[in-house]
Amino acid sequence: MTPELLRIEERDFVFEIYRAARQRGEIAREVQYAALDAYNGGWTSLFLTTGIYEAHQRDLDRETLYQARRAERQPAATLLGFELTTILLAYDDKNFVFALWERAASGSFVKAGAGRAFSGTPAEQKDFIVRGSLSNTSVTWTRPRRKPRKRSFATPE
Prior knowledge:
Layout: H1 3-7, H2 10-24, H3 29-41, H4 44-80, H5 86-90, H6 93-103, H7 109-118, H8 122-131
Helix pairs in contact: 2-3, 3-4, 6-7, 6-8, 7-8
């Protein structure tokens, strides 16, 4: 907080909050939108007393949700070779299963499993995302370990 910010009008102070939130990016998106809305709508006093705290809490809640989804979805994304973006983290489970289906190789167990999960229940969709398994199709998101082949060293006759 600089001395200049303490001397400006309330409305301009809210605009400075908006600019600071915009610079922070995705992590302060709700604060950014609420500050701009308060600035344009003329409810800067309400924003400074309660609105900023509510918007900040929404940002924290969204980040907590995204962290949980990232932990659940990262193995599937890694196996299929794509990066989890904030857009993919924002998807509900059904739409994320569809995104897996889109990226899976044609004829693969992943594509078949994602197709079944997409038309299944929310619990089946969550199970497919987390475990990669359905009743008829089993897909593991971690690469299986290869069992060593038995080698026979037969002596030539």
